[in-house]
Amino acid sequence: MLRPGLPAAQYDQNQRERVTLSQTNAVEARNAVKAFGQGDNAVRALNDVSVEIRKGEFFTLLGPSGCGKTTLLRLIAGFEMPTSGTILLDGQDITYLPPNKRPVNTVFQSYALFPHLTVAQNIGFGLEMQGRPRAEVKATVDRMLALVKLEELASRKTSQLSGGQQQRVALARALAPAPKVLLLDEPLSALDLKLRREMQGELKRLQTETGITFIFVTHDQEEALTMSDRIGVMSAGKLQQVGTPREIYTRPLNRFVASFIGETNFMPATSDGTTLTLAGGYQMPAPVLTKSGTVTVTVRPEQVKLSPTAEPGTLPATVRGVVYMGTDMNYQLHLADGTEIEACVVSDVTGEAALQAGQTVGVTFTPGSAQVLED
Amino acid sequence: MATKTFSVAKLPGFTTTAIIVFIALYLPILTLVAYSFNASQSVAVWGGFSWDWYVKAWNNDAVKDATVRSLLIAVCAAVISTAVATMAALGTTRRKAFKGQTFIYVMINQPLMVPEIVTAVSLLILFGMVKQATGIQGIGYVIFAHAAFCIPFAYLPIRARLEGMDMTLETAAADLYATPWQTFRHVTLPILLPGVIAGAMLAFVISLDDVVITEFTKSGGQDTLPTYMLGQMRRQLTPEINAISSMLLALTIVLLTAFFLLTRKND
Questions:
Q1: Which of A34, A247, A365, B219 sits 20 to 30 Å CA-CA off B114?
Q2: Residue B83 maps to which CATH number?
Q3: Is B17 within the bounds of a domain?
Q4: Which of B169, B171, B175, B186 is the mutation pick for testing A, counting most A CBs within 10 A?
């Protein structure tokens, strides 16, 4: 789960707008459909996905397994052809171009290093296949070895390397031909936690240094939030929402996005377009463009504020349980209409809970923190 | 006390059985090799140590002729069958499962299942017809027959190697600008090589000691080493046969050892 205490600076870094860069998109998918199987048994791994990935950005496709994120990546790489729709690279239609004719390289989940070649030969493979001159290949391989800090291991066989080192070779190999877009298919999933953190920083550094567009596929929401310029959240073959990490976290469009990224509370409410009425008659202003009728409101646990008594103008709730989590204190609350919600409050010095189970408390939400979901 | 797990090695009489099996396997071969050094004319009565039969076999023109022919046939058969088997293995593993896959496997492995004598007789008849129609003679018929029955022996290790190979490697090569041919040349083939060598050696050895099919498909004066030895046995059995067999055995052992060392290094 994302720690609520994440420094604002980190968010700002993620937020960096890249308006100075060229406005053409590096990659664009238009109404991409990929169906596997035939007729009634056909499964739509991708169901009408359109997305624009800008030049030089770190774009993450985030979603649970089977959501279609890897399929989309394979369409961009050319390993699969879409059932319908178009893939553009730099504004050019590459939908049916074979992978070896696309200036796009991939870092595979299993690394897929060539076991019969040395580290240097692996890194130089793409350049060799392009028929670049010997001297150029050697110079680029040396530069790549330095970039991923593997100079000493140049003549080793890849089977003699650790997981982290293999990962670096895979990265260097994919970066060596200077692709327009680098595709990364869950490249960190095989690494342990410490190494993964290290490689996250490394990837971000490489992306900034090379200026290459990165399209990163992951199911790890924290990884997505900390590394990406923008995130595309996918589920069931559809793109649910595209936005900066901050937008995705604070302004989720639907229930799936809200619950997949971080912890959150869902509460039923009625809306008249300007005011939301929650359980027990608690009212708050509705965000602009809220439809009338029954809606679902979502608020992050860290935006739920508690007062020791249910004063007027607060939402009354009963404390059902308290969990001490170190940095935070987690309160499970029961609303009048039976809805269960959670509040996450920063622990005080003693670590003692300010409120006890069974106590009736007053709940308020940080102004502007409540989101009305589309579904 | 820990529960004992079932182990064949702990059954009563296991050691005895094992020893008997090894004796049954190796005693005949040891006897054969031992009697190849026999000074007497008999293959069964020991008459002292001598290299004579080796010298005799080495200087026997018929043996030399048969050996050269055997090696020629075995090398040609191994090369042809390995090339065909490699293509068959690529064709049957480098794709999604298809209808009739099992049928294709059975078809490729047919020579392993059909009795050799049936293949031999059918080849004899077919070649007779071809020879009559075209008038072409020569060793080519025997090579063709050997290449055909060696295919499954070459196919099995190559297919095993291909099935153990990560198909992502070929995808990665394509991603790194390799054309399909470059992918095969620089990735698939080098990784496949130990399997190809194993297949070729197996085919070579199988071809080298074949009797039945050779006997039926050869023309006059086309004796291979095994058919020559069979012919000799009809006349007079001397330890010369033992000497030839021992040399054949030595060649096989050298080949197998070389293969073992070669593949071990590659892995």
A1: B219
A2: 1.10.3720.10
A3: no
A4: B175
pLDDT of residue A184: 94
pLDDT digits (tens, 9 = 90+) for A78-113: 999 999 999 999 988 999 999 999 999 999 998 999
Low-confidence ranges of chain A (pLDDT < 50): 1-22
Is residue B63 a part of any domain in this protein?
Answer: yes
Any A CB within 8 A of B177 CB: yes
Range of the domain at B135: 57-264
> Looking at residue B265, what is its pLDDT?
55
pLDDT in tens, A217-276: 999 998 899 899 999 999 999 999 999 999 999 999 999 999 999 889 999 988 888 888
CA dist B61 and B221 (Å) reads: 13
- Examine residue B102 and state whether it is found in any structural domain, yes or no: yes
Around A21, how many Cα atoms within 13 Å sit in the side-chain half-sphere? 14
The whole-chain average pLDDT of chain B stands at 87
Instruction: Write out the two tokens for B136.
Output: 């072409």
CB neighbourhood size of A262 (10 A): 20
Sort out which chain B residues have CB atoms less than 8 A from A112's CB and list them. Answer: 166, 168-169, 171-172
Work out the minimum CA distance from B175 to partner chain A, whole angstroms: 5
Cβ distance of B171 and A98 shorter than 8 Å: no
Q: State whether B166 and A177 contact (CB < 8 Å).
A: no
Domain count, chain B: 1
The reported pTM is 0.78
Chain A residue numbers with beta carbons less than 8 Å from the beta carbon of B164 are: none
The continuous run of DSSP H or E covering A335 comes out as strand A328-335
User: What burial class does residue B99 get, using C-beta atoms within 10 Å of its C-beta: 0-12 exposed, 13-18 middle, 19+ buried?
Assistant: exposed
Handedness of CA B86, B87, B90, B92 (dihedral sign): negative
Which residues on chain B are in Cβ contact (under 8 Å) with A78?
174-175
C-alpha pair distances (Å), A84 with each of A66, A80, A98, A146, A215: 19, 12, 16, 42, 22
The answer to whether A215 contacts chain B (CB < 8 Å) is no
Best CA proximity match to B154, nearest among B262, B257, B81: B81
Cβ <8 Å between A112 and B168:
yes
Phi, then psi, of B167 in degrees rounded to 5: -70, -20
Asked, for residue B20, whether it belongs to a domain, the answer is no
Give me Rg for the CA atoms of chain A. 24
User: Cβ–Cβ contacts within 10 Å for residue A271, how many?
Assistant: 18
Å between A112 CA and nearest CA of chain B: 5
